[in-house]
Amino acid sequence: MPAKTAAAESAHTFETAVGRLEQVVEEMGSDKLPLEDLIKRYEEGIRLVKVCEEKLQSVEKRVEILMRKADGDPALVPFDPEKKPLTGPREDVSLF
């Protein structure tokens, strides 16, 4: 991939990358693009998906969950996407 294209794609925000990806999909859905242009759009779409995935992974690492300790004080806990959400009574909260 040319350096100019790589720099332009890394400068995307998540929202601009998704917006451009939507445009690419729409363009690919039309019957007006020649095969060579379809392939170029497909390659661009793949790169944009990668940009979006990297941005989401970066944000996921930064997300923290505010939990309350048993003594009532708040505590920040790093977000773990692999950890199952709390479903039953929370062990870190006491009503009495």
Q: How would you describe this structure to a colleague?
A:
The chain is rod-shaped, with a radius of gyration of 21 Å. It has a domain of 60 residues: Orthogonal Bundle (Helix Hairpins), CATH 1.10.287. A two-stranded antiparallel ribbon has the order 1-2. It is 54% helix and 10% strand. The protein has three helices and two strands. The longest helix is centred in the middle third of the chain and has 28 residues. With 96 residues, it is mostly helical.
Topology readout:
Elements: H1 3-10, H2 14-29, H3 35-62, E1 64-68, E2 74-78
Antiparallel strand pairs: 1-2
Helix pairs in contact: 2-3
Give the count of helical stretches.
3
Note the overall shape. rod-shaped
Unreliable stretches (pLDDT < 50, length at least 5) are: none
Structural class: mainly alpha
Q: How far is the first residue's CA from the last residue's CA? A: 62 Å
Q: Got a strand count? A: 2
Helix content: 40-55%
Q: Give the biggest sheet.
A: 2 strands, antiparallel
How would you sum up this structure in a few lines?
With 96 residues, this protein is mainly alpha-helical. The protein has three helices and two strands.
Keywords:
single chain; 96 residues; mainly alpha; Helix Hairpins; two-stranded antiparallel sheet; 10% strand; rod-shaped
